[in-house]
Amino acid sequence: MEGLMDRPARTPGGHRRRADARWAVWLALAFAGVTTVLDWASGGLTVARADLWALLAVAVFAVLRPPRVTAGGRWLTVRSPVRVRRVRTDALAGVWRDGRIATRLLLWDAYGHRVTLDLGVLIADPLLWHELDTGARRSLEAGTLRHGTEVLRLLGRELDDTATRGILGASGLE
User: Fold this and answer.
1) What is the pLDDT of residues 144-172, one digit of tens each?
2) Adjacency order of strands within the sheet including 68-72
3) Is 145 helix (H, G, I), strand (E, B) or coil?
4) Within the chain, what is the greatest distance between any pair of CA atoms?
């Protein structure tokens, strides 16, 4: 069993995560620039206050930076600036879909570990969805998956439809 957990991680190489990270950098730099210029224009800029604006810009970046999602060896990991969460996909106990506008997927394994991830990550990387779907099928066969089979089925259909529309749109057939 440990051999499965040691398999190297597969990190999604989607352009969306890099674009979101660039956006977070630009917003943090803009925040630092605007606050420093406004403080300087008011005549109150000191070294300590400039350090404060830089520290707050780092905090803005940390909040806006998208989490990193990796999968491999029957597990899925979400790394945020604050914590790292991991679930065993072959021992899922429940799957829930949360939100109407910014939809998230909540995964809970039989060992009590929980992960929340944005559905855009699965849309951007079909291989990550494949890892999750394969693990969920194993969980269903093992009898640990008690909640969320319908959510996974509908999500799979939705992701397939999105991929099909993208392929048809790229080929000019839509």
Assistant:
1) 999 988 988 888 888 888 878 888 888 88
2) 68-72, 75-79, 84-88
3) coil
4) 68
What stretches of the chain adopt beta strand conformation (E)? 68-72, 75-79, 84-88, 92-98, 104-109, 114-118
pLDDT, one tens digit per residue, over 71-104 is 888 899 999 888 899 999 999 999 998 887 778 8
Token digits of residue 149: 């089979």
Separation of alpha carbons 91 and 145, rounded Å? 7
How far apart are alpha carbons 8 and 13 in whole angstroms?
Answer: 15
Q: What's the pTM? A: 0.70
Q: Where are the alpha helices (DSSP H) in 143-173?
A: 149-171
CA distance 110 to 138: 13
